[in-house]
Specification:
heterodimer, A: 103 residues, mainly alpha, Helix Hairpins, B: 170 residues, Four Helix Bundle (Hemerythrin (Met), subunit A), 2 domains
Chain lengths: 103, 170
Protein backbone atom coordinates (compact mmCIF):
# COMPACT_ATOMS: atom_id res chain seq x y z
CA UNK A 1 0.00 0.00 0.00
CA UNK A 2 1.71 3.18 -1.10
CA UNK A 3 0.00 5.85 0.96
CA UNK A 4 2.52 7.48 3.34
CA UNK A 5 1.71 7.06 7.03
CA UNK A 6 1.89 10.82 7.49
CA UNK A 7 -1.24 11.32 5.38
CA UNK A 8 -3.32 9.33 7.85
CA UNK A 9 -1.77 11.11 10.82
CA UNK A 10 -2.37 14.56 9.37
CA UNK A 11 -5.95 13.68 8.43
CA UNK A 12 -6.66 12.48 11.94
CA UNK A 13 -5.00 15.57 13.44
CA UNK A 14 -7.27 17.75 11.29
CA UNK A 15 -10.35 15.73 12.27
CA UNK A 16 -9.40 16.01 15.95
CA UNK A 17 -9.02 19.78 15.69
CA UNK A 18 -12.37 20.17 13.93
CA UNK A 19 -13.96 18.16 16.74
CA UNK A 20 -12.15 20.32 19.31
CA UNK A 21 -13.47 23.45 17.64
CA UNK A 22 -16.99 22.03 17.76
CA UNK A 23 -16.72 21.15 21.44
CA UNK A 24 -15.44 24.61 22.32
CA UNK A 25 -17.89 26.66 20.27
CA UNK A 26 -21.21 24.86 20.25
CA UNK A 27 -23.90 25.93 22.69
CA UNK A 28 -26.20 22.97 22.30
CA UNK A 29 -25.19 20.03 24.51
CA UNK A 30 -26.00 17.48 21.80
CA UNK A 31 -23.78 19.35 19.34
CA UNK A 32 -20.95 19.22 21.89
CA UNK A 33 -21.32 15.44 22.00
CA UNK A 34 -21.17 15.37 18.18
CA UNK A 35 -17.78 17.11 18.42
CA UNK A 36 -16.59 14.51 20.94
CA UNK A 37 -17.57 11.77 18.49
CA UNK A 38 -15.41 13.35 15.79
CA UNK A 39 -12.45 13.43 18.19
CA UNK A 40 -12.91 9.75 19.10
CA UNK A 41 -12.95 8.86 15.40
CA UNK A 42 -9.69 10.74 14.87
CA UNK A 43 -8.10 8.65 17.62
CA UNK A 44 -9.38 5.47 15.99
CA UNK A 45 -7.92 6.39 12.59
CA UNK A 46 -4.55 6.82 14.29
CA UNK A 47 -4.77 3.47 16.08
CA UNK A 48 -5.71 1.53 12.95
CA UNK A 49 -3.09 3.31 10.81
CA UNK A 50 -0.33 2.49 13.30
CA UNK A 51 -1.52 -1.13 13.44
CA UNK A 52 -1.31 -1.42 9.66
CA UNK A 53 2.02 0.40 9.21
CA UNK A 54 4.01 -1.00 12.12
CA UNK A 55 3.25 -4.69 12.57
CA UNK A 56 -0.01 -6.12 11.17
CA UNK A 57 0.53 -9.45 12.92
CA UNK A 58 0.25 -7.82 16.38
CA UNK A 59 -3.33 -6.81 17.00
CA UNK A 60 -2.79 -4.07 19.60
CA UNK A 61 -4.08 -1.25 17.40
CA UNK A 62 -7.26 -3.01 16.36
CA UNK A 63 -7.93 -4.28 19.89
CA UNK A 64 -7.71 -0.75 21.28
CA UNK A 65 -9.90 0.53 18.45
CA UNK A 66 -12.57 -2.01 19.46
CA UNK A 67 -12.36 -0.76 23.05
CA UNK A 68 -12.70 2.83 21.83
CA UNK A 69 -15.88 1.79 20.01
CA UNK A 70 -17.31 0.41 23.25
CA UNK A 71 -16.32 3.50 25.21
CA UNK A 72 -17.84 5.77 22.56
CA UNK A 73 -21.12 3.87 22.69
CA UNK A 74 -21.15 4.10 26.50
CA UNK A 75 -20.35 7.80 26.40
CA UNK A 76 -23.14 8.57 23.93
CA UNK A 77 -25.69 6.51 25.85
CA UNK A 78 -24.97 8.18 29.19
CA UNK A 79 -24.52 11.64 27.65
CA UNK A 80 -27.78 11.60 25.75
CA UNK A 81 -29.64 10.14 28.76
CA UNK A 82 -28.30 13.00 30.89
CA UNK A 83 -29.31 15.54 28.26
CA UNK A 84 -32.83 14.13 27.98
CA UNK A 85 -33.13 14.04 31.77
CA UNK A 86 -32.00 17.68 32.03
CA UNK A 87 -34.36 18.64 29.24
CA UNK A 88 -37.31 17.13 31.15
CA UNK A 89 -36.49 19.19 34.24
CA UNK A 90 -35.40 22.51 32.72
CA UNK A 91 -36.67 22.30 29.13
CA UNK A 92 -33.36 23.52 27.78
CA UNK A 93 -30.26 21.81 26.48
CA UNK A 94 -28.23 24.97 25.95
CA UNK A 95 -25.04 24.35 27.90
CA UNK A 96 -24.91 27.94 29.21
CA UNK A 97 -28.36 27.73 30.77
CA UNK A 98 -27.64 24.51 32.67
CA UNK A 99 -25.89 26.37 35.48
CA UNK A 100 -27.30 24.78 38.60
CA UNK A 101 -23.81 23.89 39.83
CA UNK A 102 -22.24 27.19 38.83
CA UNK A 103 -21.08 28.91 41.95
CA UNK B 1 -1.06 8.74 -8.91
CA UNK B 2 -2.00 5.26 -7.67
CA UNK B 3 -5.63 4.37 -7.17
CA UNK B 4 -5.21 3.97 -3.41
CA UNK B 5 -4.00 7.54 -3.03
CA UNK B 6 -6.97 8.82 -5.05
CA UNK B 7 -9.38 6.85 -2.85
CA UNK B 8 -7.64 8.20 0.26
CA UNK B 9 -7.82 11.81 -0.93
CA UNK B 10 -11.50 11.51 -1.86
CA UNK B 11 -12.24 10.00 1.57
CA UNK B 12 -10.22 12.65 3.35
CA UNK B 13 -12.10 15.40 1.52
CA UNK B 14 -15.44 13.78 2.40
CA UNK B 15 -14.46 13.37 6.06
CA UNK B 16 -13.11 16.90 6.51
CA UNK B 17 -15.97 18.65 4.68
CA UNK B 18 -18.57 16.63 6.60
CA UNK B 19 -16.78 17.27 9.90
CA UNK B 20 -16.73 21.03 9.26
CA UNK B 21 -20.43 20.90 8.46
CA UNK B 22 -21.08 18.93 11.68
CA UNK B 23 -19.57 21.67 13.81
CA UNK B 24 -20.94 24.67 11.91
CA UNK B 25 -24.41 23.88 10.62
CA UNK B 26 -27.29 25.36 12.65
CA UNK B 27 -29.88 22.62 12.32
CA UNK B 28 -28.92 19.71 14.58
CA UNK B 29 -30.71 17.12 12.44
CA UNK B 30 -28.50 18.19 9.54
CA UNK B 31 -25.45 18.06 11.81
CA UNK B 32 -26.26 14.47 12.79
CA UNK B 33 -26.68 13.52 9.11
CA UNK B 34 -23.33 15.13 8.26
CA UNK B 35 -21.84 13.09 11.09
CA UNK B 36 -23.13 9.97 9.32
CA UNK B 37 -21.27 11.07 6.17
CA UNK B 38 -18.04 11.64 8.11
CA UNK B 39 -18.34 8.26 9.85
CA UNK B 40 -18.91 6.56 6.52
CA UNK B 41 -15.72 8.14 5.16
CA UNK B 42 -13.83 6.80 8.19
CA UNK B 43 -15.27 3.33 7.51
CA UNK B 44 -13.91 3.49 3.95
CA UNK B 45 -10.51 4.44 5.38
CA UNK B 46 -10.59 1.35 7.62
CA UNK B 47 -11.27 -0.74 4.52
CA UNK B 48 -8.32 0.95 2.75
CA UNK B 49 -6.18 0.01 5.78
CA UNK B 50 -7.46 -3.59 5.41
CA UNK B 51 -9.13 -3.51 8.83
CA UNK B 52 -12.25 -5.12 7.38
CA UNK B 53 -13.88 -6.02 10.70
CA UNK B 54 -13.53 -2.47 12.00
CA UNK B 55 -15.02 -1.08 8.78
CA UNK B 56 -18.13 -3.19 9.28
CA UNK B 57 -18.28 -2.37 13.00
CA UNK B 58 -17.93 1.32 12.17
CA UNK B 59 -21.01 1.16 9.96
CA UNK B 60 -23.07 -1.09 12.23
CA UNK B 61 -22.22 0.50 15.59
CA UNK B 62 -21.41 4.11 14.75
CA UNK B 63 -23.81 4.80 11.89
CA UNK B 64 -26.43 2.22 12.81
CA UNK B 65 -26.59 2.88 16.53
CA UNK B 66 -24.78 6.01 17.68
CA UNK B 67 -25.82 8.36 14.87
CA UNK B 68 -29.42 7.15 15.07
CA UNK B 69 -29.34 7.68 18.84
CA UNK B 70 -28.23 11.27 18.17
CA UNK B 71 -31.14 11.76 15.76
CA UNK B 72 -33.58 10.47 18.39
CA UNK B 73 -32.10 12.76 21.04
CA UNK B 74 -32.37 15.75 18.71
CA UNK B 75 -35.98 14.94 17.95
CA UNK B 76 -36.83 14.45 21.64
CA UNK B 77 -35.35 17.76 22.72
CA UNK B 78 -35.47 20.14 19.82
CA UNK B 79 -38.65 22.20 19.87
CA UNK B 80 -37.69 25.85 19.24
CA UNK B 81 -34.03 25.73 20.20
CA UNK B 82 -32.89 26.09 16.60
CA UNK B 83 -34.39 29.52 16.19
CA UNK B 84 -34.07 30.73 19.77
CA UNK B 85 -30.34 30.44 20.26
CA UNK B 86 -27.38 31.03 17.99
CA UNK B 87 -25.56 27.86 17.02
CA UNK B 88 -22.17 29.04 18.19
CA UNK B 89 -20.70 31.23 20.88
CA UNK B 90 -19.80 34.80 20.06
CA UNK B 91 -16.19 34.07 20.93
CA UNK B 92 -15.91 31.29 18.37
CA UNK B 93 -12.78 32.83 16.85
CA UNK B 94 -10.79 32.14 20.05
CA UNK B 95 -11.70 28.48 19.69
CA UNK B 96 -10.76 28.61 16.00
CA UNK B 97 -7.33 30.06 16.83
CA UNK B 98 -6.85 27.42 19.54
CA UNK B 99 -7.85 24.58 17.21
CA UNK B 100 -5.53 25.89 14.48
CA UNK B 101 -2.67 26.14 16.99
CA UNK B 102 -3.23 22.55 18.09
CA UNK B 103 -3.39 21.46 14.44
CA UNK B 104 -0.19 23.34 13.63
CA UNK B 105 1.61 21.80 16.57
CA UNK B 106 0.44 18.29 15.71
CA UNK B 107 1.38 18.63 12.03
CA UNK B 108 4.79 20.04 13.01
CA UNK B 109 5.41 17.06 15.27
CA UNK B 110 4.18 14.57 12.66
CA UNK B 111 6.27 15.81 9.73
CA UNK B 112 9.42 16.00 11.88
CA UNK B 113 9.05 12.44 13.09
CA UNK B 114 11.60 10.09 11.49
CA UNK B 115 10.12 7.32 9.37
CA UNK B 116 6.72 8.94 9.06
CA UNK B 117 6.74 8.76 5.27
CA UNK B 118 7.03 5.00 5.26
CA UNK B 119 4.56 3.02 3.23
CA UNK B 120 2.91 -0.09 4.57
CA UNK B 121 4.32 -3.51 3.89
CA UNK B 122 1.98 -6.12 2.52
CA UNK B 123 0.30 -8.20 5.18
CA UNK B 124 2.33 -11.41 5.33
CA UNK B 125 0.75 -14.40 3.65
CA UNK B 126 -0.90 -16.79 6.10
CA UNK B 127 -1.74 -14.06 8.62
CA UNK B 128 -5.51 -13.90 9.04
CA UNK B 129 -6.02 -10.56 10.76
CA UNK B 130 -9.67 -11.21 11.63
CA UNK B 131 -8.74 -14.51 13.24
CA UNK B 132 -5.85 -12.86 15.06
CA UNK B 133 -8.11 -10.07 16.36
CA UNK B 134 -10.64 -12.57 17.67
CA UNK B 135 -7.89 -14.51 19.40
CA UNK B 136 -6.30 -11.38 20.83
CA UNK B 137 -9.58 -10.27 22.41
CA UNK B 138 -10.24 -13.55 24.24
CA UNK B 139 -6.82 -14.95 25.12
CA UNK B 140 -5.69 -14.15 28.63
CA UNK B 141 -2.13 -13.35 27.59
CA UNK B 142 -3.31 -10.51 25.41
CA UNK B 143 -6.38 -8.29 25.69
CA UNK B 144 -8.86 -10.40 27.63
CA UNK B 145 -8.89 -8.18 30.71
CA UNK B 146 -9.26 -4.81 28.90
CA UNK B 147 -11.96 -6.36 26.73
CA UNK B 148 -13.92 -7.63 29.73
CA UNK B 149 -13.50 -4.33 31.55
CA UNK B 150 -14.87 -2.46 28.56
CA UNK B 151 -17.82 -4.88 28.47
CA UNK B 152 -18.57 -4.13 32.13
CA UNK B 153 -18.24 -0.42 31.39
CA UNK B 154 -20.73 -0.71 28.53
CA UNK B 155 -23.18 -2.68 30.68
CA UNK B 156 -22.93 -0.18 33.53
CA UNK B 157 -23.34 2.72 31.11
CA UNK B 158 -26.45 1.21 29.55
CA UNK B 159 -28.06 0.47 32.91
CA UNK B 160 -27.19 3.99 34.04
CA UNK B 161 -28.59 5.47 30.84
CA UNK B 162 -31.91 3.66 31.31
CA UNK B 163 -32.05 4.81 34.94
CA UNK B 164 -31.34 8.44 33.99
CA UNK B 165 -33.67 8.65 31.03
CA UNK B 166 -36.67 6.82 32.43
CA UNK B 167 -39.68 9.03 33.08
CA UNK B 168 -40.99 8.92 36.64
CA UNK B 169 -44.15 10.96 36.12
CA UNK B 170 -46.72 8.17 36.12
Amino acid sequence: MNIPLSWFLILSAALFCIGLFGVLTRKNAIAILLGVELMLNAVNINLVAFWRYLDPSKMAGQAFAVIVFAVAAAEVAVGLALIISVYRKRSTIVADEIDLMKW
Amino acid sequence: MPAEQIVFLLCAALILVSAVMVVTVRNLVHAALWLVAALFGVAVLYAVLSANFLAVVQIVVYIGAIAILFLFAVMLTRRDLVVRTPGMRGSWWIAAVLALLVLGGLVFLIVNQPGVNRTALAIPAGVDTLHALGNALVSSGQYLLPFEVSSILLLAALVGAVYLAVSRKS
